[in-house]
Amino acid sequence: SEAAERFTAANPKSAAIQEQALAAMPGGNTRTVLHYHPYPLRFARGEGCRLWDVDGHEYVDFLGEYTAGLYGHSEPVIRDAIKQAADDGWVLGGPTLLEARMAETVVNRFPALERVRFTNSGTEANLMALATARAHTGRDRVMVFKGAYHGGVLYFSGSPLNAPFDYVMGDYNDAEGSAALIREQGDRLAAVLVEPMSGSGGCLPGSGAFLQALRDATRETGALLIFDEVMTSRLSPTGLHGLLGITPDLLSLGKYVGGGLSFGAFGGRADILAKFDPRQPGAWPHAGTFNNNVFTMSAGLAGLTHVYTPERAVSLNADGDALRARLQTAIDDRGLPLAMTGRGSMMALHAGRTAPTSPPEAAQRNRRLVDLMHLDLIHGGIYTARRGMMVLSLPMDAAAFDTLAAAFEEFLDSRRGVI
Ligand code: PLP
């Protein structure tokens, strides 16, 4: 298409590096989600909420490392914490004060976390949460939702690579059908794993009725309710479950909570996590060389303590609500059949006048339109996720929001004919 040709003409250095990368990685890629046609931009550096690619273009970064980039690039407090960790050695091979303080901080912050354990990624956190639920209940099967993404080996959209658990799938936001499925599964079902807002599925909020139905039905059958808040824990000072007032049995975290370094955590009810207490005979093992790596512990602790304070969580999400409304107004002023969805600092664009309510519905509607928007926004100096998702970071100011709004309006006006 003409948008792809314009992209190719503007990005010869990214093209050359892509060619080089093809020799060692399939598709020149080690993160499938970052690939797009004709080839992805290669980045040279970032600062605050801005990025520069190898061809010298500047972008406002609305991809925000898929929510892990909440602090922006080289945030000074976090940079100092990383430097301190580097000065003090980083393969200590023993527990540290840092991880004790990091654990205390997340336990105090997120109501569902009575106890916590750290991992290296959100994928691993979810794998551990599911394994914990299966061991705790003595049951095999787990329930997830069609189109859900919970990590590289937990992607319920036809991937042949998933961890070999026995799954059943519900429909996201179908309260009655999901509760019925949970009851029908009865004492075969160990856990229900769900994001309280589907993030990569298109920033689709789970309704209160849906999430409460999952809470009630799992309580009835003895399955554990696991909230994957790897993305959504940024949406309030107490995570999305804290905001909604629904407490799962287990919770997984990741992304920005580690200050922008590799991070995951799973935890929840103290009586369940107690099985990991290594002082008792028969304790469940949970290992991982880098679970308490000092860079992440130091960066995560500094970020939560000094940067993403409860006040800033409230203001960042208020900025996101205002921006989402602003983009929707731009759509409505033009009478176009598009809908913004999301909550707080995470949002996405969808084709159609009404918001989709499930990931498969969003995926079916959007494809061509969001691909086009992605390339048009890049042309307008805005870097976003290919699937139409936009994520805020703390360094963003009014100028950053104005740049996005201008590029978005330009996209709407120039593509009116195909929308
Ligand atoms: N869960 C959700 C909801 C996610 O969005 C992601 C990553 O995008 C993950 C889990 C996996 O986290 P990680 O990429 O750290 O393995």
UniProtKB/TrEMBL annotation:
Q: Which domain of life is it from?
A: Bacteria
Q: Which UniProt keywords apply?
A: Pyridoxal phosphate
Per the UniProt record, one Pfam family is: Aminotran_3
Q: Name one GO molecular function term.
A: pyridoxal phosphate binding
Q: Which cofactor does it need?
A: pyridoxal 5'-phosphate
Q: Which family does it belong to?
A: Belongs to the class-III pyridoxal-phosphate-dependent aminotransferase family.
The name this protein carries in UniProt is Glutamate-1-semialdehyde 2,1-aminomutase
Name the species this protein comes from: Thalassobaculum litoreum DSM 18839
